[in-house]
Amino acid sequence: MWLPVMGLLIGILLGLSTEFRIPEAYSSYLSIAVLAALDTLFGGIRAHLENVFEEKVFLTGFFTNIALAAGLAFLGVHLGVDLYLAAVFAFGVRLFHNIAVIRRFLIEKWVNNRKKDRDMIEE
Amino acid sequence: MKDRMIIFTCVTTIIGFMVAIQFQSTKEPEIRDTRNIHELRQALTFEKERQKELNEELENQAEMLYQLQQTEDLEPIMTDAIEELKVRAGLTEVSGQGIIIEVSPIFEEDYGGGAIRSVPPYLLRMLLNELNIYGAKEIAVANQRIISTTPIREANGVTLINSNRVTQFPLKIRVLSDDPESLHHAVMASRAREYFSYENLSINSTPINYITLPPYDRTLRVRHMEIVKEES
């Protein structure tokens, strides 16, 4: 459970310590890639909780989503249309949806656990 | 299960890395003072001079305030102040020692250009700048007094100073100076003289003991300036 959180911290530390900077023109691509990655991550957590998690789907989804989002933003810049907004919208909606599902799942689990505990005490 | 956690860990690491880079890239770079000692000294000297000027100004103003407070009759002092300001703005006739510069066209044998109607504005500006560098106090070009807002421009091939056509040759430029002799030498050796010769114009300067410069004869329009309200 704590391993992914550790991974996140390690990633942030690594990123901060490398002093690596990307040009300002490409920062929008990176931000949309981050959004896509977060979306995939929460999708993965949800699938994990619902016991329908598949590694191949998750990993391929992670990388293709990032590539697709960045590609869409790139295409948008060259077409003169703010296409990245479409990606932001889609990922944002899915992100919120996934988080809501995860929250409901956790609450249900918590309520069930408490009920179980009470039943045990009453017995 | 263990595989799953490792995959999640990899993914979160990548996300963390991307977020950190994004954060670092959008962060404003810190502005550092990269001036060296020489530049710092220059800045310091500049500020000191400024301070000196401001102090002098303050002293003048304080003295005037004192005078105003002391005397019952304010009118002469205020008239004096206005007169002084008028002199400084170039609204009065001034005279003294100085030089007269004459600009006239030179036609060599193989001259092939058109008629020379007036001195190009950029040359006049260059000459005036050089005069100011060499210590000119007041300048008048062909009876047009040069003040701080005097425009020198070109319209329809004719040079205008204070919106007056300056076409006659030789063009007389009268300059007041404390040291006419050295100003005369400076003009005769100036870069402006060389540039004038490229446009087939020659410059001749003569130091003179007494010349009079006309006042600025138009209404001074003061724009983009506001009275500073005294803070109570």
Describe this structure in words.
The complex is a heterodimer of chains A (123) and B (232). The longest helix of chain A is centred in the C-terminal third of the chain and has 39 residues, at 84-122. The mean pLDDT of chain A is 87. Chain A has one domain (23-122). Chain A is built from 4 helices and no strands. In chain A, 25% of the residues are buried. In chain A, helix 2 runs antiparallel to helix 3 (55-79). Chain A is mostly helical and 123 residues long. Chain B has 232 residues and is an alpha+beta fold. Among the domains of chain B are: 54-89, no CATH class; 94-107 and 116-213, Protein of unknown function DUF881 (Alpha-Beta Plaits), CATH 3.30.70.1880. Chain B has a 5-stranded antiparallel sheet, with helices on one face. Chain B has a 3-stranded antiparallel sheet with strand order 4-5-6, covered by helices on one side. In chain B, a hairpin with a 2-residue loop joins strand 5 and strand 6. Chain B is extended and about 105 Å long. Chain B starts with a helix and ends in a 19-residue tail after the last strand. The mean pLDDT of chain B is 85. The interface between A and B is medium-sized, with 39 and 24 residues.
Mean pLDDT of chain B: 85
Name the chain pair whose interface involves the most residues: A-B, 39 and 24 residues
What percent of residues of chain B adopt helix (DSSP H or I)? 40-55%
Poorly predicted runs of chain A? none
Q: What is the rounded Rg of chain A?
A: 19 Å
Terminal CA distance of chain B: 76 Å
Number of domains of chain A: 1
Helix content of chain A: over 70%
Number of helices of chain B: 6
Low-confidence stretches of chain B: none
CATH architectural name of one domain in chain B: 2-Layer Sandwich
Query: What characterizes the major β-sheet of chain B?
Result: 5 strands, antiparallel
CATH superfamily of one domain in chain B: Protein of unknown function DUF881
Largest sheet of chain A: none
- Taken in chain order, the helices and strands of chain A follow as HHHH
Question: How many β strands of chain A by DSSP?
Answer: 0
Annotation field: number of helices of chain A: 4
Structural class of chain A: mainly alpha
Shape summary of chain A: elongated
Pfam families (chain B): DUF881
Family (chain B): Belongs to the UPF0749 family.
Keywords (chain B): Coiled coil
Family (chain A): Belongs to the sbp family.
